[in-house]
Amino acid sequence: MLTRREFIFALGSLALSAKKALSSYNTKPIDYKDIAVKYEVSPIDAKIENYMSAMSLQEKISQILIYCPKSTSQIIPDSNIILMGWSFPSGLYSKIIEQTKSNKIGSFIAVDQEGGKVHRLRNNKKFRGCRLPSLLSIGKLEDSQVHEEGKNYGSILKEAGINLLLTSIDAPKNRTKMFKEGRAFGTDPETVIKKATSYFNGVKESSLLITILGQHFPNYDINANTDGSIGKDYSSKEELKENTKQFFEIKTDGFMVSSITYPEISGEPASLDETLVNFARTTGEEKILISDDFRGLVRQYKKRKIPAPLNTATIKMFNTDMDIMMMVPIGYISQAKSLLENYIINSSEAEKKLNRKVKRILSKKCEKGLLNL
């Protein structure tokens, strides 16, 4: 007995085959409304699942990865891209933006940019003179001024072709790394909720279709840099619940889940721990969950002497409810794609997990104008 979802996928495949076989005849188009009513799904869900039925495994895997190419020859069609500081002065940035315009499925294009010390857009001469204050300084402004700063930043991102904004909504009450580097609106959840809401409303006013992901769930309040070391937060479950309040109350499209380990909950970094990923998922089934860069996770696994660190971390994360893996540096991408392909092709359960992730991503892209159905 087929489930409703399996039936829709089967129907999509059948429709595609019929369309090819009868291309010379006048055939009746698929009635998505009828499918939606009969199987209790929305018309857009029916369209997305039908679209997915015609996607190859490789195309689906590309949707759950984001990476930073070092040349245009490394761009994977229909994939997602994050730009680093060195992407801008080389002229690579403008070539990437131009080349991705021809994608069937629009790319999420993000920039490693949080304000404070991390402001990569300044590496491009076009934006060098733009007003790009730190989040901490913005958090000290009146709400109306915060809104205006958001509008200003939204305009810059729109002009730059950036459609995925990764921004800290951490509340580092202990005045740790995020505070010291100016990468937080404030040190308590209430301030962050108030200021981030005004700021994001401003960003969306200038860049209506931008996707906003808050980071670093469940909260970055340690001094360690998890890109290069094992960072541990010894907060209790109760403390952590209180410190994540802003992630539940600020309207975003999803979150970056951190690489911090919370020993009171697990011995794994948050984005590799099923309990913490599920905690993030309780904010909404539709939320996009993205990892921090894999370089940090691989380094942590190497320090723990875990065999095949990239392979182990990739499969472990895939088996959680995370959606997008940040495969930085570029050397990881080919290995990860091959590994995932071999893993999924031999497992119907893995294929179901992939389809759930891809459907969530395509639904968001459809909402943001990156996929026309």
Based on Cα principal axes, name the global outline: globular
Q: Give me the strand/helix succession.
A: HHHHEEHEEEHHEHHEHHEHEHHEHH
Total strands: the figure is 10
CATH class: Alpha Beta
**CATH H level, superfamily name:** Glycoside hydrolase, family 3, N-terminal domain
User: How many domains make up the coordinates?
Assistant: 1
Query: What is the topology, as strand order, of the major beta sheet?
Result: 3-2-1-10-9-8-7-6
Please identify the structural class as seen in this structure: alpha/beta
Structure notes:
This protein is α/β, with parallel strands linked by helices and 373 residues long. The chain has a single domain (65-347), classed as TIM Barrel. Helix content is 46%, strand content 11%. It contains 16 helices and ten strands. It has helices at 4-21, 32-39, 43-53, 57-63, 92-100, 135-138, 143-160, 177-180, 189-206, 237-243, 245-249, 274-281, 294-303, 309-318, 331-345, 348-367, and strands at residues 65-67, 80-83, 109-111, 113-115, 118-119, 164-168, 211-217, 254-257, 288-293, 324-326. The chain has an eight-stranded parallel beta sheet with strand order 3-2-1-10-9-8-7-6. Strands 4-5 form a two-stranded antiparallel sheet. Helix 3 crosses helix 16 and helix 4 (57-63) packs across helix 15. The protein is globular, with a radius of gyration of 21 Å. The two termini are 29 Å apart. Residues 7-11, 13-29 and 35-39 have low confidence and may be disordered.
